[in-house]
Amino acid sequence: MFEVTCWDSYDRVIEGFTQWDINQTLYLKNVYDDFGLTEAPMFHFCNKNSNEALVVQSTVEDNNVIAVKVPNILLQESYPLIAYMYVYSLPSKQKMGDLTDVVSSASAKALVAIKLAVRPRVKPSQYKYVENIDSLTVAQIEKEIKDRLDKLESELKESVNSKISELEELVLEFETWLSKSEISTTGSYIISQTYEVTTDSSGLAALPFNSEDTQANYVFINGLLAVEEKDYQITDNNIQLVQSEFVSGEDVVTFVVLESVIDGKTGESKSIDVSSEIYEIKTDTDGYAQLPFTYDDKVCQIFINGVLAIKGKDYSIDIDSNSIQIEKSEFITGEDVITFVVLQALNEDVADSKSIDITLDVYEAETNKSGYAAMPLVPKIMINHYGDEAVQIYINGMYAIANKDYYIEDSNIQLINSELGANDVITFVVFKSEMKNNSDESYTNLIPITEEELNNICK
Asked: Which residues, at least 6 apart from 386, have a Cβ–Cβ distance to it below 8 Å?
């Protein structure tokens, strides 16, 4: 512990006080800078008769001089005055949410000791005691810590948001450079168009598009993936729900059509034909099943009982045995239905091209209790750069519609459905395409870069 010199308001070194002095202030020079303080410290005052020290909050004045009032009550006695400069160290950010945890995990240390004599004298007849300090209680100290934590958290958020903005600017600058460089390839981003209809009480509705010209790659009934002939039928440009559990009247049918791409080289949109093959199987009581096709790295979205599932989190694939295993116990009810949507594309505009392989990137975010979440970096850039149609969004595995189930503002997503609570999982799916030419070389679009690529650039 360090001993320091104190000054009075006349910039004179304080050697001590005289009994019955009032309204004295200690000034400490260089201490704030020498100890690297960021907040005005607290001081604990006492003498040999004290049962508890009086806690006094100091202030920081010009030139980082610390000023602290001496309690008048301690100058009523002619005992040496002792003061300790007491500094709190805030806990880690993980402890910020709960004030009880904050107080229990915050560390504190007396860094400076001050000892000043109080010379005895007779009490003046005109002496009148005046309380000159606000001695801090435990509750006030807790509030002080909480206020400092709130300030720190706000500063951290501001700093993080600033860094994210810098990263976004870097990625957009990289995109612009890449689109003009020789590195840019024939890779593309696929745009999805979404349509919705509501059925009548018999489960019937007119299609919102001409079925002869447009084919839906996905059909969702009340947010769950549906399969033609099993869950619905399409005839004469109408859709008829088949399964009785779907026919409740005013059922919402969502059609998702993958109808165009954005070329990574030119930024222009051009049409491609995207076909979707759908396979279904039922699992055994352990959530295990053989795959109905030979699984490879082609794009394949998997739905368990109509809900989007994530590889490595909800299920695992064993390529050697060509089998699937449901991982999440809540999904395993026995004879669960697993639906596979496999996408393929042909580009009719390019005569010498063989095909376009479609791949996807999946990102997740979790909402707070208000249904709010910050979007992952790449979907954020995709939406900012290409619009909402460049990203498919699922809420708890069910397909979601912009401005109906959620809205996006300032690169954050807000759920609209009031029935949704905290920890809802939002899944972002970004489709990309890789064109294979006659030389059998595969070209991969690098726009926008993934988080892993971005991290490598920024190292």
From this structure: 189, 191, 262
CA distances from 443 to 264, 378, 434, 440, 457 (A): 11, 20, 6, 10, 21
Contact in structure between 217 and 244 (CB atoms under 8 Å): no
> Is the four-CA dihedral 288, 290, 291, 295 of positive or negative sign?
positive
User: What confidence tens digit (pLDDT) does each residue in 176-194 have?
Assistant: 665 555 544 445 678 888 9
| Cβ atoms of residues 74 and 46 within 8 Å | yes
Within 8 A by CB and 6+ apart from 240, the residues are 202, 203, 204, 232, 233, 234
- Residue at 132: amino acid letter: N
Question: Contact, 257 vs 192, CB < 8 A?
Answer: yes
Is the separation of the CB atoms in 259 and 214 below 8 Å? Answer: yes
- Record the tokens describing residue 448, joined without a space: 């926008």
Distance from C-alpha of 190 to C-alpha of 172, rounded to nearest angstrom: 19
Which residues partner with 37 through β-bridges?
A: none
Whether 58 contacts 41, CB under 8 Å: yes
**Nearest in space to 230 (alpha carbons), one of 343, 344, 337, 342:** 337
Cβ proximity of 222 and 252 under 8 Å: yes
pLDDT at 357 over 50: yes
**Interatomic CA distance for residues 383 and 402, integer angstroms:** 12
Contact 435, 349 (CB under 8 A): no
Tens of pLDDT, residue by residue over 293-314, are 888 766 789 999 999 999 888 9
Please name each of the domains of the chain with its CATH number: 2-138 (2.60.40), 185-272+347-458 (no CATH)
Say what the pLDDT of residue 21 is.
Answer: 94
Query: In the structure, what pLDDT confidence band is assigned to residue 329 with cuts at 50, 70 and 90?
Result: low
For the chain, the distance separating the N- and C-terminal CA atoms, rounded to the nearest angstrom, is 41
CA distance 273 to 258: 8
- 416 CB-side CA count, 13 A: 10
Q: According to the model, what pLDDT value does residue 459 have?
A: 47
What mean pLDDT is reported for the chain?
Answer: 80
Cα separation, 216 vs 211, whole angstroms: 8
State how far the Cα of 442 lies from the Cα of 356, in Å rounded to an integer: 9
pLDDT-based confidence at 432, cuts 50/70/90? confident
